[in-house]
Amino acid sequence: MDSSPISCKTLGHFFGVDGKRLEEQYASHLSGFTDWDQLEHAENWLVFPENLGEYLSIDETSLSQGELYTVLTNKAAKGKKGALVAIIKGTESESVIKVLSQIKVGLRRKVKEVTLDLAPTMSRIVKRCFPNAELVSDRFHVQQLATEGVQEIRIRYRWGGHRTGKQGNGAGQDCKKTLGAGIA
Predict the structure, then answer these.
(1) For residue 181, what pLDDT is reported?
(2) Does 51 share its domain with 129?
(3) Fewest C-beta atoms under 10 Å: which of 4, 72, 90, 154?
(4) Residue 120: partners with Cβ closer than 8 Å, 6 or more residues away
């Protein structure tokens, strides 16, 4: 059976009621949103300690209009239900640490590994909040740094004339021979 979500408008049409009104009633009364324990601070942060696992990822993202958020996810959930551990408005380490510190320290000590980018703020957050976790640099950022390094060397090699005193394409051909045709 297909469990795809449908809109209130579609549901209203199916049952012959005003979909907009159904949506308003759901949001205001049926969903429990007004009684939600995170409603007071939901605009700035959300924490779901029940989703915490041994292997996490932390990164920043821009959700709308350039506003940055720090997102902590449980890798075991593979992006599905239960993946979101926390989302916090901003990337300033002390603010993020303050929010994540609301998770019981016993749970935070069980985290074995956190994958993160190379930003010092993310490293600071992980070290303070998950003291037993090993920090693992994410592959994308490591590959990006390596690619940029190879590109910088390739350009310097090509335009520097590498031992032959040549400029331009001749040096580029030397580079291809030395480093391999796939790089230059």
Answers:
(1) 43
(2) yes
(3) 4
(4) none
